[in-house]
Each structure stands twice: as C-alpha cells, then as structure tokens.
Design a protein that fits this description.
Helix content is 43%, strand content 19%. The protein contains 12 helices and 10 strands. Bound molecules: 5'-O-[(R)-(carboxyoxy)(hydroxy)phosphoryl]adenosine and zinc ion.
Length: 357
C-alpha cells in the first residue's frame, strides 16, 4: 500500500450513449487496506436518449458526435461541482462498447494525462458495472466470494463467476440480443419511446394495478437448458408476431400495450432469475451481484432479492442511478486497480471495443 492520505480520481465514461464524468475522493488510505472511505465529489452524466429516440436505439456516429460536443462541458460541470480539486489519477473506460464513442473518452483522458502528467487506469465497462457495488470498505467483504454476477444492459447479458475483486470467469452470455436490447426493441414495436426498459416497466406496473389476470404467455428462451447462456431475440419476435396478428384497434389500445409490457417483463425476469439461481447452486455462490441498466428494473430487483433469500445468499445491487451507465463505477474500478499498482502511461492506453472480462 502506497503512503498517501487521499486519492482524487477523475473518471470518464463514453462507451455508449451517455457522456459521463465523475470525481471521487478516497480517504483514509494511510490506514491498513480496508478502511478507506469513498466520497463522490461530483457525478455528471449527459444523456443522449433524446438524440437517439427516433432510431429506437443508439446510432454510433451520432453518439460519437454528441460525446465530442458534450465532453468538455461535462468535465467543466464536474470540476466546478467538486470545487476544482487537484486530481491524482485518471480512470477511463477502454471497452467493451462502441469503438468511435470509446475513442472520444480515451483520447480526452490521454490528453489530460499528458498535460498534467497523471497516470491512467484503463477500465473494463463490465467490471465497472460489477464493482460499483463495492462502495464500502474491503474489511466488510468477508463471506462475499465466490459471487455470481449478472450484468444486464443494452449491450450485454453476462453471468460471471467472481472469485475475488479482479478475478472473474465468464460462465454464460446472450447468443443474440441483450436483455436491455429486448426491452428496447419490444418498446419500439409497441410504440413506446427509447430507452424502452423504463417505459416497459411503467406500462407493466399499470397493467398490474388494473388487477386483470394475463392470458398471453410468452416464451422463456433457453430457461431449461443446462448452460448459462441466454437468447432474447426469439422473445422479441414472439411479441412482433402477436402484435402483427392483432387488429390495429386492439393493438393500439393502452390495455394491449400494458399487457404486452407486463408479459415481456415477466418473461425476461423469470429467465434471468432462474439462470442466476442455477449458477449459484452449481458454483456454491455466497452472493448474487446485479449490475447494468436493466438492474434498475424494480421487478428484477425484487425477484432476485427474493431468490437470494431463498438460496441463503447475500444480494448486492446498486442504486438505480449507478445501474445505468455512469462514471462513478469507472472511478471505483480505477481505484481497485490502482491499489494493485495497475496504472499506465497515456501512450499505452488503447481502445478495445470487444474487451472481455
Ligand atoms: O448499462 P446501460 O445504461 O448502458 C449499456 O451499457 O448498455 O443500460 C442501458 C439499458 C437500456 O437497454 C435500457 O432500456 C435498460 O438498460 N434499462 C432498463 C431500465 N432502465 C434502463 N431496463 C428495464 N427496466 C428499467 N427500469
Ligand atoms: Zn453499461
């Protein structure tokens, strides 16, 4: 452990459609490892949701342009909010993600690093979705590992066995669409806006509150297969066919949209919870860790918490604002790598759009 009272990290995230900058301060570093305290000095995100709304998904060249336009004002706001602290370390997402978008954040970080002579920690976006759950000291981490992590976002659906911080094994992932992508595509079919996840959740809640029982049973793809892979594109197609076969008068009604939203959420959540539970049993997991934008879904959070209790294991899930893309998760991951001395010179930092955990 290096002698230093505190560490101030500038964290940058531009892998998809949110331009994010956060400034974190970690205190009590001079004490033995495990007693540090995290302060979030600022956490700024500029969402491009409106820009991409008319495409029903992220359009990479547009996203890159928006990152270029936003990154300096977002940095300025983050620095002001944090009262212009002296920065000691830069953490930046280098992958996985959209390559043109990743380069905006990475080159910005490289330029700052070169000018201010600051070390950089390259961050894996998937690991960041997991490590944002570890905002408390390491002394509290006993009995957490092995953990089973489910990372569910617009670009990824992965089940990961975590032996400790920094040690992961990918045990399953989606073979086609990600869970968030399925929410987004179904929302588009139903005429709801982008991003689709929160819209589907809202509609599904209304359906439930109507106290109608649902009659439309959608498929649960791969739920009984003895592997940890997922497939969500068939589910989206099932909704599309049902929608196309339903007369316009009915399919455009609120009742139909709410029912379909409810059904698709049920199907996605059931598959995610069931596969995670099986992984916990096989790998003797002590903790279920959730992360990624879809983890903001209340139904998924509730069902996963229930399952964890049933399996007698811990359950970690970030606050909703730390489930969707943010730079706090990047700063936290940068911190854990810094603790292990894994810092780099700006010349060695490159983008890897297909980076694996
Ligand atoms: O992690 P994230 O912000 O970006 C990626 O790395 O992809 O995840 C965005 C995804 C979108 O597909 C969005 O529809 C989904 O997360 N999402 C949700 C909810 N909030 C965001 N899905 C279901 N329910 C939600 N409440
Ligand atoms: Zn993400």
């Amino acid at each position: 452990m290096r002698k230093k009272e505190s560490l101030t990290i500038l964290a940058i995230e531009t892998s998809c459609d949110d331009t994010c900058v956060a400034i974190l301060r970690i205190r009590n570093l001079e004490l033995e490892i495990g007693n540090w305290k995290l302060e979030i000095l600022s956490n700024i995100a500029s969402s491009q949701a409106k820009v991409h709304a008319k495409y029903g998904g992220v359009y990479p060249t547009l996203a890159k342009r928006e990152h270029q336009r936003n990154i300096v004002p977002v940095l300025e706001t983050a620095l002001k909010k944090a009262r212009n602290p002296e920065i000691n370390l830069i953490a930046v997402t280098v992958g996985p993600g959209l390559e043109p978008c990743l380069w905006v954040g990475v080159n910005f970080a490289r330029a700052i690093s070169r000018e201010l002579k600051l070390p950089i920690v390259p961050v894996n976006h998937i690991e960041a979705h997991i490590l944002v759950n570890f905002q408390f000291p390491i002394s509290n981490f006993q009995n957490i590992f092995p953990a089973i992590c489910l990372v569910v976002s617009g670009g990824h659906t992965q089940l990961i066995l975590m032996k400790e911080i920094g040690k992961y094994k990918l045990i399953g992932e989606t073979r086609d669409d990600a869970a968030g992508e399925c929410f987004d595509k179904v929302a588009r079919i139903l005429g709801l806006k982008y991003p689709g996840g929160p819209e589907i959740e809202k509609m599904a809640k209304k359906f439930k509150s109507q106290k109608f029982t649902s009659s439309q049973k959608l498929p649960r793809p791969m739920i009984h297969q003895k592997n940890y892979d997922f497939s969500f594109s068939g589910l989206k197609t099932a909704v599309l066919y049902h929608y196309q076969e339903t007369p316009p008068k009915i399919r455009n009604s609120k009742r139909y949209i709410q029912k379909m939203a409810f059904e698709v959420q049920e199907a996605i959540v059931e598959v995610l919870v069931s596969k995670t539970a099986r992984a916990v049993k096989e790998y003797k997991g002590k903790t279920i860790i959730l992360g990624g934008g879809v983890a903001a879904n209340q139904k998924l959070r509730r069902e996963m918490r229930k399952k964890a209790k049933e399996l007698n294991c811990n359950f970690l899930v970030p606050k909703a604002k730390f489930c969707v893309d943010n730079a706090v998760m990047v700063g936290m991951t940068g911190f854990f790598h810094w603790l292990r001395g894994e810092v780099k010179d700006w010349k060695k930092i490159k983008v890897n759009a297909n980076l694996k955990i």
